[in-house]
Amino acid sequence: xxxxxxxxxxxxxxxxxxxxxxxxxxxLQKLIDDMIETMYNFNGVGLAAPQVGVLKRxxxxxxxxxxxxxxxxxxxxxxxxxxxxxILSEEGCLSLPGFITRLKRNERxxxxxxDRKGNPVEIEATGLLARALQHEIDHLDGILIIDxxxxxxxxxxxxxxxxxxx
Length: 166
Known about the structure:
Helix content: 25-40%
Strand order of the largest sheet: 1-2-3-6-7
Strand content: 25-35%
Order of helices and strands: HEEEEEEEHH
Structural class: alpha+beta
Mean pLDDT: 95
Number of helices: 3
Number of strands: 7
Oligomer: single chain
């Protein structure tokens, strides 16, 4: 296993839509293992393949450190099939280090996809897991948390963030 480089804003790969995964071969399995190691090394609760420069619909999530009765989740080609409610909470992103904002997300989500062996998976989630699923699936569609804040907050963020990167 290897720790991968996490792509940071404004890297263009973060704005692109990921492609469906059709091949579950060894290359994908190695990518899954590397993404898990990377997520843990950076103390993240989730990671999407585009965040490591791979435009595939693949996410890994582990909220067990902050949410009871949870464990590592690997989802291939995940999609939200239903959602309910609304909740406002703080959210950060490994691709936007140091930036935290309050976002509205659905309180409960129903997600389907495949596990790493290709078996169908359905997840009903609330709390941090629901937020993480929505966040990582957004990455697969080229959406960052700054795309979900007001235009004024987004412009202030861009100016401040890009200034600190110079």
